[in-house]
Amino acid sequence: MKDGHERKRARGIDRAFDILDHLRAVKSPQRPADIAQALGAPRSTIYDLVNTLLDHGMLEEADGKGAVFLGRRLYFLGLAYDEHFDLTHKVESVMQEITERSSETTQFCMLDGDKYTVALQVEGNRPFRISGDIGDRTPIPWTASGRLLLGGMSDEEILSLIPPEDFTLPGGDRLDVARYLAEIRKAHAAGFFSFDSIVDTFTHCFAAPVRDRAGRCVGTICIVAPKDDAVTHYETYRAMLIEASESLSQTMP
Amino acid sequence: MKDGHERKRARGIDRAFDILDHLRAVKSPQRPADIAQALGAPRSTIYDLVNTLLDHGMLEEADGKGAVFLGRRLYFLGLAYDEHFDLTHKVESVMQEITERSSETTQFCMLDGDKYTVALQVEGNRPFRISGDIGDRTPIPWTASGRLLLGGMSDEEILSLIPPEDFTLPGGDRLDVARYLAEIRKAHAAGFFSFDSIVDTFTHCFAAPVRDRAGRCVGTICIVAPKDDAVTHYETYRAMLIEASESLSQTMP
DNA sequence: GACATAATTCCGGTATAGTGGAATAATAAT
DNA sequence: ATTATTATTCCACTATACCGGAATTATGTC
User: Fold this and answer.
1) Which CATH number, 1.10.10.10, 1.10.443.10, 1.20.272.10, 3.40.50.300, labels domain A4-75?
2) What sequence ranges are listed for the domain IclR-ED (chains A, B) (predicted)?
3) Per-residue DSSP letters for chain B?
4) Do residues A230 and A189 make contact, with C-beta atoms less than 8 angstroms apart?
């Protein structure tokens, strides 16, 4: 990929993680043959790797006959990550409070490789429920958080991180890159960003950064509100998020 | 390991997972050199693997200068596991209820490879707090749950799973294997087990199995109570756990 | 500063992991 | 049953990942 030297074989470890990511993406048990097809990888290789991953508990037999899914060991490793950074504890209580005061859905979002994802969510008690599935990987530019998470990067870094096709919105429209970059700069300076969702037509998204001591944006706290609510309570929500942003950034490692 | 054919090189993927497990065990960022030493693995190999794992987001730079720890991608994979099996949701509400009614610490425990571990915990509001760290890997025979989790296995399977040294208790005493196996059979038949902790001197542990449809024990719900409490409320706690055990086993996949 | 020690990168050889393809087993369709 | 289709295992070849050891760089000590 990176160097000019053309490889003829993939590294097992790369393929192994591809398998895990694929299962995470499709969210359902798959048989080795399906995985091989989906990844465009040699079947014999996938069979071998699946067995290795099963041995390690990174995958588990799912439906008794062939299909596998993510394994318990991944859960425990994830727990260890969570405990170490202690994100959940601190962030979740802040989110609870915001949702209590606003009745809106609150989210904590992070980068996951070159995609955006919702890591934590507290659902508001609105009559209709607003929420993308947590854990889904979404193109960064589609989201309000996508203006904050990359705040620390140069234009070049940003453009080399985001796959070009991710600038095409779900409707097929193309996002203006220069404008996107400008939004990032502005959001970074303001420590806040909000806009009408470009993924749906009825919500407004508020986002504020959570920064580590070095100032890098490790995640965002967001409020996802129906548009009319957002108009009515704009300043309140904005203030709540900025306050949460600052208090959480204090406690980050 | 399994076949007689002696290998001279380890597979990268095996070493990679060893690295992840090691970091989980020590719970703190490590530098590649430390990891290599701790694992008894070639340094150059570990450096290479650590870089690969960093590229994949399975590890993250921790302290700015060299040390790495478990990465975000593991957290997300763990989330996906959790969501799919939906354990947390169902189990946690049951645990909440038990702790509310008993004021004791409730745990949900699982096998993790050849060790026992606490996957979920709701702490009771006793004046002194009872809890081993969640996520720690503990020898199976040291625990009450260790009588239930292996209920579906034959003697041979059990003995080949558990490393011999795990029958040595923390104090140095040796656990009688025949007696341990007998306890497993009895616990399995009763759907319940309890005993005074052998890890500390002041608690009594209650455990009941959570079984999947096939009858295999996927985890245990446990109450960890001070000994005098345990005596006073023995029948109540026992009944609560058995009820929870049965209701949860209904809902398992 | 010089020196000692430890951490990290570099590099070439070889054991072997990843692969294509064939053989076999399982499953579905007829 | 027979056939067609698909899934899985087996096997041998070679590109390369793993590894030992040397070279380099960083870190600490005096």
Assistant:
1) 1.10.10.10
2) 73-253
3) --SSSPPSS--HHHHHHHHHHHHHHH-S-B-HHHHHHHHT--HHHHHHHHHHHHHTTSEEE-SSSS-EEE-HHHHHHHHHHHHHHTHHHHHHHHHHHHHHHH-SEEEEEEEETTEEEEEEEE----SS---PPTT--EEGGGSSGGGTTTTTS-HHHHHHHS-GGGGB-TTS-B--HHHHHHHHHHHHHHT-EEEE-SSSSSEEEEEEEEE-TTS-EEEEEEEEEEHHHHHHTHHHHHHHHHHHHHHHHHH--
4) no
End-to-end CA distance of chain B: 33
pLDDT digits (tens, 9 = 90+) for A137-173: 999 999 999 999 999 899 999 999 999 999 998 888 8
| Closest residue, by C-alpha, to the C1' of D27 | B65
The string of pLDDT tens digits covering residues B156-174 is 999 999 999 999 988 888 9
Q: Is the pLDDT of residue B38 over 90?
A: yes
What residues in B contact A214, CB-CB < 8 Å? 64
Q: Which residues of B touch A58 (CB under 8 A)?
A: 17
pLDDT of residue A2: 40
- B246 and A CB contact within 8 Å: no
Cα–Cα distance for residue pair B95/B74, rounded to 1 Å:
26
Residue B82 has pLDDT above 70, yes or no: yes
Domain ranges across chain B: 4-75, 85-250
Specify whether the CB–CB gap between A210 and A174 falls below 8 A: no
What is the pTM for the complete model shown?
0.83
Residues of chain B with C-beta less than 8 angstroms from the C-beta of A120: none
* Segment A12-38 mean pLDDT: 94
CATH fold of the domain at B85-250: Beta-Lactamase (3.30.450)
Mean pLDDT of chain A: 89
pLDDT above 80 for A128? no
Lowest mean pLDDT segment, chosen from B85-89, B237-241, B242-246:
B85-89
Count of CB atoms within 10 A of residue A80's CB?
A: 25
Residue B147 corresponds to which tokens in the numbers above?
A: 């009588």
**Per-residue tokens: A239:** 């203030």
| Rounded CA–C1' distance between B44 and C10, in angstroms | 10
User: Of chain A residues 89-128, which have a beta carbon within 7 Å of strand C?
Assistant: none
Q: Is A83 on the interface with B (CB under 8 A)?
A: yes
CB contact under 8 Å between B76 and A71, yes or no, is no
Q: Which of B56, B80, B214 sits opposite A27 (nearest CB)?
A: B80
Quick check: B130 pLDDT over 80? no
